[in-house]
Amino acid sequence: QVHLVESGGGLVQAGGSLRLSCTASGRTFSPYTMGWFRQAPGKEREFVASITDNFGRTDYADSVKGRFTISRDNAKNTVYLQMNSLKPEETAVYYCAAKPAWRDVYNYWGQGTQVTVSS
Asked: Among residues 77, 90, 86, which one has the least CA distance to residue 34?
């Protein structure tokens, strides 16, 4: 079992930045692929970014490429999401997730952290 706790959400003006953190406990942090997802009110949850354990390969949703950066510190069992140039439409609950590298589906989820971008 992997327990994930997100932090770093809050209120920011459009164009501003936030850094989200997700700390894992329980089973070893490695070799899990870590991901960030978000869910806006009335919308389905969507993929934002992911990072593998081996070589730290990253993947991003097209909508955040060039503005968001995912990274991980395995020594601290933590994954980060640096979000720059935030837009009001990116207001959502942001969730951290984890899965073994061989799985297609994320099977561990955090409780989420609210990000609100004001216009």
From this structure: 77
Neighbours of 107 (CB within 10 A): 12
Q: Is 16 helix (H, G, I), strand (E, B) or coil?
A: coil
Q: Can you say how many angstroms the Cα of residue 112 is from the centroid of all Cα atoms in its chain?
A: 9
At 106-115, the pLDDT tens digits run: 999 999 999 9
Residue type, 109: W
Contact residues for 8 (Cβ-Cβ < 8 A; gap 6+): 18, 19, 20, 21, 113
* CB contact at 8 A, 85 and 65: no
Using one digit for the tens of pLDDT, what is the confidence trace for 51-93?
998 788 999 999 999 999 999 998 899 999 999 999 999 999 9
Q: How far is CA 106 from the centre of its chain?
A: 12
